[in-house]
Amino acid sequence: MSETLRVALVQTTTPADPAEGLAHVAPLIRRAAEGGARLILTPEGTNLLVQDRARREALLADEGEDVAVAGLKALATELGVQLLIGSAIVKSGHADDARAANRSLLIDDRGETVARYDKLHVYDVDLPTGERWRESAAVRPGERAVVARTPWGGLGLTVCYDVRFPHLFRALARAGADLIAVPAAFTVPTGEAHWETLLRARAIETGCFVLAPAQGGAHADGRRTWGRSTVVGPWGEVIGRLDHDRPDVLFADLDLSAVARARQAVPQLTHDRDFAAPDPIA
């Protein structure tokens, strides 16, 4: 594993159409590559963000036919970089389930898909602001956690709401993750309250770098997302963050030997113990 890695987190305000999504994100990815990034990460919903179910179903395509996914694979080849499509909203491939997959795709520098992960935890919530989200109505949850092999070590794949489930992150770290991606489209209320705290906690608990590219700003479908893309080191320190919700690129240089140092100082991944669950309170 090489010792230093320049990464770039691409922050977007993705439109509600895959062709427009590609046109929006491609210049930012080019800027990331021009800045020397060897691993580039985009947010959740890189190809499209649209709440209207009928319109989304009309736009959905199979992974292999989505114009944004195809364009991003070609771009990774052209630029000679590894590209994590934080997620693409695509058909799940299950004939008995019309819901989409919220799918993270790791693309290598030859344009090949080397890992895919379907978001495990879907976001169903009624917020105090009156916002109501029912992701489960439109997205089929995944069934399997994924750690991808990269030239710089293991990359654990998660998407957005997954960040609230620490046992998933520990499982990724124990399976060989040195870096964990958290592409997201956090709402403004939850982002303001919890975004950075959750990212730092997951990094501390696992001794991993946490790379969190985010959607930000006012979207065509009426939602507003938090932005503030962030890179956290394995000791829980914030290495880099954007201080706004506009489209942008965040660069960070990672000293990959910091993972071993953090885990040597606090070897918590080796200290898990089985225990009996508490009796529920009547």
Describe the fold and architecture.
With about 280 residues, this protein is α/β, with parallel strands linked by helices. Helix 1 runs parallel beside helix 3. The radius of gyration is 18 Å and the shape is globular.
Keywords:
globular; 282 residues; six-stranded mixed beta sheet; 29% strand; alpha/beta
Give the helix/strand class: alpha/beta
Helix content: 25-40%
Radius of gyration: 18 Å
Beta-sheet strand percentage? 25-35%
Q: How much is the average pLDDT?
A: 95
Strands of the widest sheet, in order across it, are 5-4-3-2-1-16
Distance between the ends: 52 Å
| Helical segment count | 6
Number of E-type strands: 16
What sort of overall outline do the alpha carbons produce when their principal axes are compared? Answer: globular
Largest sheet: 6 strands, mixed
Low-confidence stretches: none
Order of helices and strands: EHEHHEEEEEEEHEHEEEEEEH
Fold blueprint:
Layout lengths: L3 E8 L6 H17 L4 E3 L11 H7 L7 H13 L2 E10 L8 E8 L5 E6 L5 E3 L5 E3 L11 E5 L2 E5 L8 H9 L2 E5 L6 H19 L2 E4 L3 E3 L5 E3 L3 E3 L5 E4 L6 E8 L2 H8 L17
Parallel strand pairs: 1-2, 2-3, 9-10, 10-11
Antiparallel strand pairs: 1-16, 3-4, 4-5, 6-7, 8-9, 11-14, 12-13, 14-15
Helix pairs in contact: 1-3
What is the compact description of this entry?
The chain is α/β, with parallel strands linked by helices and 282 residues long. The chain contains 6 helices and 16 strands.
